Amino acid sequence: MKASELRDMTPDQLSDELVKLKKEQFNLRFQAASGQLENTFRVRQVRKDIARVQTVQRARALEAGKE
């Protein structure tokens, strides 16, 4: 997911996306622990996507604070 796509989302959509990504991260951790995880790179992708969503949310919060 690209940061530009995230910037176009509403705050509610960002929150929903964050919840979805955290659930996926949880499931990937369980798959890794049980030895069922095939695509190990997906763990890194999800972690970075979570960081991107949180960065966009924080930037918007800072913008709102300045106004």
TrEMBL record:
The keyword Ribosomal protein applies. GO terms for cellular component: cytosolic large ribosomal subunit. It comes from the Bacteria. Pfam families: Ribosomal_L29. CDD domains: Ribosomal_L29_HIP (cd00427). InterPro entries: Ribosomal_protein_uL29, Ribosomal_uL29, Ribosomal_uL29_CS, Ribosomal_uL29_sf. The keyword RNA-binding does not apply. GO terms for biological process: translation. Keywords: Ribonucleoprotein, Ribosomal protein. Gene3D superfamilies: 1.10.287.310. One of its GO terms (molecular function) is structural constituent of ribosome. Signal peptide: none annotated. Belongs to the universal ribosomal protein uL29 family. This is Large ribosomal subunit protein uL29. It comes from Tepidicaulis marinus.
